[in-house]
Fold:
Amino acid sequence: MNGRTESFSEDRTITLWELRQLEDKPKSRARLTADRSASAFPIAAALLLLAHYKLAANVRNAVPTDTYSYFIGFLAALLTGAFVCSFFSKELYSWLLKKAPLYSVLFLLLGLYDFATLKTGILPMPYFPWPDRILNALWEDRALLMDCVKNSLVLLFTGYAAGVVVGLLTGIMAGWSARVRYWVTPLIQVLGPIPATTWLPIILIVAASLFGGSAFLIALGVWYPVTMTSMNGVLNISKINFEVARTLGADKKWLVFKVAIPAAMPQIFQGLTQGMSVACTALMVAEMMGVESGLGWYINWQRGWAEFAKMYGAVIVICLTFTAVNFTLSMIKRRVLRWQR
Structure:
């Protein structure tokens, strides 16, 4: 009995990555050498990009700086450090080998853009600034950009939180009660197919403040997917779950909070993810057309002054910001739904 217990305990310590390694077929020495070389491709791509930027001739009157060189060199140093550490960590090596094609292509695309702008002028200035100008513009306006990021995030999460709260309440109640569903369903059918940004002109006129109107617009866009997925999640729960809980003495409150909501969590998080996508879109539209702060406002403002390098820099900041927001939401989802693994 003790032997069995110890064996079971040892089996539980095996990670998912180790299990996949055990399932994989043994690789030949030539294949191992090829994989190790492939994991270094991003470093080679970064060094080729750096050499091309420093050695290739630029278009006439172009005066680039060393900012782009430092940026590529920093990325190359990070990849080199990861490559060296991969000799001591099998998980890091597996991750680096998996990401190597993607990172290599990204460096290739950066090189193509640099070639089409700084080196040949195929994409003309000022509409297509070369990467060095974009990085310098980001550094020049870093204080204002950080303030815009803060204002955008405050507006985003204010509207998103309001939409999530109302959406969860209406969705769970509609999924649980046929009477509530009778009144909520027509509202969903009317407001659901209409994009939230359609209501922007009306909201900006009626709202007491631009911030409040924009937050309401974001909340309206988030409300629909959260309501739909929450309602469908509760409706799709097997009746057997409720019958078993009632047999064990569960009351109505227990059935809602301990059975219905946990069982509907996968569908609820699907709505939360869709709602975040809608919220980001509504945020940009609201800031470009009404709100006098934030990243969308900054892009519109710089475009009006033909500061395209700063405009592209703000687009990069938006991509990084929204990627971080979605990554955080994904981590919360993985934490809450860890029982699905």
Notes: The chain has 16 helices and no strands.
